[in-house]
């Protein structure tokens, strides 16, 4: 609910409330705000439950697009592109940042004296 409000803003609101309301009325006002927020939350929960009961299975169909929108809020283009580019790679072959883990380079042994280097006709 208060995702965009940090501790500094809350502290400023408390100090402003202390100056505006005074130390005698501030606890009473804080209690009123807490009760009001709790009541609004209860109303929202009750409305959601009533809507869920009345709509039945259609409620989940209505809720699915809202969940998709919530996922878009945390959309990261870099992860999406990486996922679609490297979709065929197994899940455990990716780092936490989404980039695939590089496979270890094959160990190349030195050529023995008189041995010819490998020839790749596609590379020439």
Topology, element by element:
Layout: H1 7-55, H2 58-73, H3 77-85
CA radius of gyration is 30 Å
Average pLDDT taken over every residue: 79
Tally of helical segments: 3
Q: Gap between N and C termini, in Å?
A: 63 Å
**Class by alpha and beta content:** mainly alpha
Tell me the β content: under 5%
- Give the overall shape: elongated
Percent of residues in helices: 55-70%
Record field, number of beta strands:
0
The main sheet comes to: none
Residue runs with pLDDT of under 50 for 5 or more positions = none
Task: Describe this protein's structure.
This protein has helices spanning 7-55, 58-73, 77-85. It is mainly alpha-helical and 124 residues long. The longest helix has 49 residues, at 7-55. The radius of gyration is 30 Å and the shape is elongated. The termini are far apart. The relative contact order is 0.04.
Features:
single chain; 124 residues; mainly alpha; 3 helices
Task: Sum this structure up briefly.
With 124 residues, the chain is mainly alpha-helical.
């Amino acid at each position: 609910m208060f995702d965009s409000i940090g501790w500094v803003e809350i502290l400023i609101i408390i100090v402003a409330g202390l100056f505006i309301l005074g130390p005698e009325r501030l606890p009473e006002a804080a209690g009123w705000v807490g009760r009001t927020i709790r009541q609004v939350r209860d109303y929202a929960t009750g409305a959601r439950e009533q809507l869920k009961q009345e709509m039945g299975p259609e409620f989940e169909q209505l809720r699915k697009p809202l969940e998709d929108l919530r996922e878009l809020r945390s959309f990261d283009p870099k992860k999406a592109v990486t996922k679609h580019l490297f979709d065929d790679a197994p899940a455990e072959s990716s780092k936490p940042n989404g980039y695939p883990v590089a496979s270890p380079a094959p160990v190349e042994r030195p050529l023995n004296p008189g041995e010819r280097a490998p020839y790749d006709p596609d590379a020439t």
